[in-house]
Structure to design on (213 residues):
């Protein structure tokens, strides 16, 4: 079994951390949150000879899901996630693009499979538990790999901050509950990648994040 590794491709004017999770030995993997700049993502996959089997979405905001349908078509792979509560957001991506003044073409997204709390997703020998963590978006999910002590938290938690809750469907109290009741109990030693900016470890956020103290 190869080691789980992650490469980050910042995409779109939002500088969203499109993440390629892959096995270091067999170079299989998945793309998490392809928000746009599909040619750039494809170039990174090709240069590193990584074969991806699926697109995993954490939630339905345009900077995370805006390029999902195009990438699906280019690679012939399925879109998995998020939770069905984000179906309205995914069906409204084209309007989101107009609202933000984005010029790149964006298509509304229809996942092949929605996820629920407790579901398991995997590629190769790497298995992730699905945690439904609403607050930033109603259907936001987190992908957690206990063996690697790693979580992809999307826009739920950031280093020194938390996800914004002033967008449609946002709920600050629900967001803090998601972090305190679902993420932090996983352990202080869990490392995370988030949707924007640098990642970190849950323990450091538990001790120093002003939104959690």
């Amino acid at each position: 079994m190869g080691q789980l590794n992650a490469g980050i491709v910042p995409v779109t004017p939002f500088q969203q951390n499109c993440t390629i999770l892959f096995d270091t030995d067999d170079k299989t993997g998945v793309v998490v949150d392809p928000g746009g700049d599909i040619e750039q993502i494809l170039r990174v996959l090709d240069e590193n000879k990584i074969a991806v089997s699926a697109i995993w979405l954490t939630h339905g905001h345009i900077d995370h899901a805006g390029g999902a349908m195009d990438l699906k078509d280019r690679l012939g792979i399925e879109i998995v996630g998020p939770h069905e509560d984000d179906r309205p957001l995914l069906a409204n991506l084209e309007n989101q693009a107009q609202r933000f003044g984005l010029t790149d073409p964006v298509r509304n997204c229809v996942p092949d499979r929605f996820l629920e709390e407790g579901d398991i997703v995997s590629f190769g020998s790497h298995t992730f538990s699905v945690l439904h963590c609403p607050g930033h978006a109603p259907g936001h999910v987190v992908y957690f790999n206990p063996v690697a002590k790693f979580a992809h938290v999307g826009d739920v938690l950031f280093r020194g901050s938390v996800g914004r809750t002033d967008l449609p469907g946002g709920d600050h109290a629900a967001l803090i509950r998601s972090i305190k009741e679902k993420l932090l109990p996983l352990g202080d030693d869990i490392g995370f990648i988030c949707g924007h900016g640098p990642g970190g470890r849950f323990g450091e956020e538990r001790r120093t994040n002003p939104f959690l103290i």
Summary: The chain has a mean pLDDT of 96. The chain has seven helices and 14 strands. The radius of gyration is 16 Å.
